[in-house]
Amino acid sequence: QVQLVESGGSLVQAGGSLRLSCTASGSTFSNYIMGWFRQAPGKEREFVAAINWTGGRKNYADSVNGRFTISRDNAKNTVYLQMNSLKPEDTGVYYCAADYDTGRLPSRLSAPYDYWGQGTQVTVSS
Predict the structure, then answer these.
(1) CA–CA distances in Å: residue 74 to residues 63, 67, 105, 110
(2) How far apart are CA 62 and CA 46, in angstroms?
(3) What are the pLDDT digits (tens) for 27-53?
(4) Of 8, 87, 109, 120, which residue is the least packed, with the fewest Cβ within 10 Å?
(5) Which residues are CB-neighbours of 19 under 8 A, at least 6 positions away?
């Protein structure tokens, strides 16, 4: 079992930056691929970014590539999402998720992720 707690969500103006954190407990953090997903009001949850256990493999949604950076600190059991040049369309609840790492590329699909946090709200005003 992995428990995930997100933090760092806030209200920010377009063009601004935020850093989200997700801290894990309950299992060996470095065994897991970590992903970030988001859900805007009235929309399906969508993939944002993911990172494998070493940090050497990353995957980004096209909509955030070049603006967002995912990273992790295994010693702190924490994964981060640095979000720059924020746009109103980045608004939503951001969730982190954990998928046991078997060596494959971090998935963009939500199905492989077994554990999810409660989410943190990000609102970008225009």
Answers:
(1) 27, 23, 18, 22
(2) 11
(3) 899 899 999 999 999 999 999 999 999
(4) 109
(5) 8, 80, 81, 82, 83
Residues 59, 106 contacting (CB under 8 angstroms):
yes
Distance of CA 25 to the CA centre of its chain: 16
Measure the CA–CA gap between 79 and 49, rounded to whole angstroms: 11
Through-space distance between the first and last CA atoms of the chain, rounded to whole angstroms? 40
| The pair of three-digit structure tokens given for residue 116, joined into one six-digit string | 């999810």
pLDDT digits 0-9 by tens, 1-18 = 899 999 999 999 999 999
Buried b (16+ CB within 10 A) or exposed e, 3-25: ebebebbeebeeeeebebbbbbe
Amino acid of residue 46: E
Question: Which of 36, 3, 40, 2 is CA-nearest to residue 19?
Answer: 36
- Report how far apart, in Å, the C-alpha atoms of 32 and of each of 61, 102, 114, 122 are: 20, 8, 10, 25
